[in-house]
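Retro notes
What went well: the complex prediction finally ran end to end.
Inputs used:
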Amino acid sequence: AQSVTQLGSHVSVSEGALVLLRCNYSSSVPPYLFWYVQYPNQGLQLLLKYTSAATLVKGINGFEAEFKKSETSFHLTKPSAHMSDAAEYFCAVSESSGNTPLVFGKGTRLSVIA
Amino acid sequence: GAVVSQHPSRVICKSGTSVKIECRSLDFQATTMFWYRQFPKQSLMLMATSNEGSKATYEQGVEKDKFLINHASLTLSTLTVTSAHPEDSSFYICSARDAEGVGYEQYFGPGTRLTVT
């Protein structure tokens, strides 16, 4: 079975500061990993994904994440936070071997302080 | 890019009535669609997996007779909440998987806010 743990349900950063959202996964098979962002009353938008190619993945809006197998982690970072980054962020995992559903973490709400 | 639409975006219905929510993949074929439910300030909970032309696979604890899922074509899946009750009020989100895409990426619809009065 797969699972995702997002450390910190709420992260608050100042505008211009580094954003770091933590995600650890558990999977018995090679995983595919995803980060999604959700704005209030909207669906999910894909930020980036890891699909067993490069371990450092660059996504939209200046976000990137690094897959670290030894640490079973896939933390999301952005060098400089912008007010528009305030949203809910979800890390998700799926099996790379088949057509399986995504398993989501509980989410991390990012607040950006002016 | 791949776009998934949901209709309606918001619906208010009376207790005991049924509500149908549509999920469409607009520019790709989706052999598999997923239905999620999201409570306020919580994560997405998978309700069921819908494969075109076959019966949906429901997650444990989800009543299949209450949440009817139909996936009649490669671009449309519907979720019908039958005999709705106030506890069914939630945000329902569908996603569609582009089977030809790398990594079996899922594309999400904008969600449907259901309020049962």
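What we learned: The two ends of chain A are 41 Å apart (CA to CA).
What to try next: split runs per interface for comparison.
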